[in-house]
Amino acid sequence: MIRLILLLSMLAAFPPLATDMYLPAIPYLKDLWGIPLSVMNLTLVLFFVTYCVFLLIYGPLSDRFGRRPPLLTGIAVYILASFLCAMADSVTLLIGARILQAAGAAAASSISLAIAKDRLPAKQRQVVLGYIAVIMALAPMISPMIGSLIMTRLTWPWIFRVQAFMGLISFIGVAVMKESHTQRLSSPFSAILEPYGRILGNGRFLGVVACTSMIGLPHFAFIAGSSCMYIQDFQLGEKSFALYFGANALCLMAGSMLCARFGQRIGTLRMMTVGYLGMIIGGMLMFSGLIKGPPGLAVPMGFISFTGGLSRPPSNNLALEQVPKDAGTASSAMVFCYFILGALSMAAISLNWADKVRYLSILAMASGVLSLTLWARIYTFIRVPAPDSSL
Fold it and tell me: Residue 320 sits in which domain range?
């Protein structure tokens, strides 16, 4: 079980590993190549847009051909693209390599959830997803620190070489993993899109996914804007930025740990409600300006991340519980919605806002209100996993 949790965590962490480790280099490359932030952040935005498109492809492929073949192919593409990123000498080449990197990374995230659905019953899956979320939270906490260390000791291309090495470790883990999906589809290849028709007709699934996806809006905006807000607006160094960013990830991990440890007692519905309220409260605190300087961003965002870490594992599990089959397709659709909204959020905060912190606070409040309103309308209709006394 421990090996499975570690492997699934590594696979699910591909997006933060591919993004957060690279954040400390953004201000440097922006100045090096003499380009505005909106252009530099295309390396983030287009990464996630491409990532989302390929999520929709890998899920049905894994339902048809098994989990391992498309997963190994995607990781191999990711490794190659990481080396190409390290060789880029302009923003155009870096954007192209990042797009290719995203095309490979999508396999890891989407199929990892499907493997969890294959291997684990619903209640045990929620516990395991909680532990995976704890481990995943270490990625955004440690990755900027690794990126900052590389920037001070080596050169920025080494950031992507390290990512390639991590991809190689995942490739080996999947290569020795036993196939988890043996009941493969035998229908014509043209029927590969049919599962999406069933998914789109599942109102309970779509409702939970919509709520879950809106949780990510302030988080992705923070990821895209944090380096410039801390380094340029607050005039912090790269090491200080890494500490503040890591503290935010620690809050996310704390929420996930609470979910994994006490989720059975707290309850799925209660944890999700707390997550939506947390966005509203954190956004209000940030908007008020009661806390000045870098802590004025870090403290409210940390509270938002804590409640998000508490609510996202049960949200993912609850969404999968609404789908009796097509787990790979459902997994892809879930991650697609989460990251496509995240990409839009990244693009929005990259615009020339006079006060990015104020914009982030408004986004958090609006996302929380929308999520909570939708959740209040659907929670009585969804299928909740029955209690499991064996856990």
Answer: 11-175+195-378
Per-residue model confidence (pLDDT) at position 344 = 84
Does some domain include residue 183? Answer: no
Structural contact between residues 179 and 66, judged by C-beta atoms closer than 8 angstroms:
yes
3-state helix, strand, coil in the chain (%, to 5): 85, 0, 15
CB 105 within 8 A of CB 78: yes
Query: How far apart are the C-alpha atoms of 48 and 339, rounded to whole Å?
Result: 6
Rounded to whole angstroms, how far apart are CA atoms 219 and 212?
12
Please give the Cα distance from 238 to 243 (Å, whole number).
9
Please state whether 66 falls in left (phi above 0), alpha (psi between -120 and 50) or beta: left
**Number of compact structural domains in the chain:** 1
Q: Which two tokens stand for residue 17?
A: 């590993």
Tokens of 153: 């000791």
Give yes or no for residue 318 having a pLDDT over 60.
yes
Instruction: With a cut of 90, say whether residue 284 has pLDDT above it.
Output: yes
Decide if 146 contacts 249 (C-beta within 8 A).
no
Average pLDDT, the chain: 78
What is the C-alpha to C-alpha distance for residues 79 and 94, in angstroms, rounded to an integer?
A: 15
User: Is residue 33 within 8 Å of 324, Cβ to Cβ?
Assistant: no
Q: What is the pLDDT of residue 388?
A: 39
DSSP run (H or E) holding 142: helix 122-153
We report the CATH number of the domain holding residue 312 as 1.20.1250.20
- For the question of whether the overall pTM of this predicted structure is more than 0.90, the answer is no
More confident residue, 246 or 88: 88
Question: Residue 94: its pLDDT value, please?
Answer: 92
Cα–Cα distance for residue pair 318/263, rounded to 1 Å = 13
